């Protein structure tokens, strides 16, 4: 229910993006799950794609 408000928070997405580069795979997995849940809200999808570093970090996770 709070997905839209969470994404609007200034520190939420940058923090999750930083966790995508964490050396612990469990931390990366939890960050990916959080991003997945946030992306289920249509309003958030465009915001997530446009977030600085998001796509680059996701590509890095895929390559690992």
Automatic annotation (TrEMBL):
Protein name: Armadillo repeat-containing protein 1
InterPro entries reported in the protein's UniProt record: ARM-like (IPR011989), ARM-type_fold (IPR016024), Armadillo (IPR000225), ARMC1 (IPR016617)
Main localization of the protein described in the UniProt heading: mitochondrion
Source organism per UniProt: Dissostichus mawsoni
Record localization: Mitochondrion outer membrane
Function: In association with mitochondrial contact site and cristae organizing system (MICOS) complex components and mitochondrial outer membrane sorting assembly machinery (SAM) complex components may regulate mitochondrial dynamics playing a role in determining mitochondrial length, distribution and motility.
Oligomeric form and interacting partners: Interacts with mitochondrial contact site and cristae organizing system (MICOS) complex components IMMT/MIC60 and MICOS10/MIC10. Interacts with mitochondrial outer membrane sorting assembly machinery (SAM) complex components SAMM50 and MTX1.
One Pfam entry name: Arm
Keywords from the UniProt entry: Membrane, Mitochondrion, Mitochondrion outer membrane
GO terms for cellular component: mitochondrial outer membrane
Keyword Mitochondrion among record annotations: yes
SUPFAM superfamilies: ARM repeat (SSF48371)
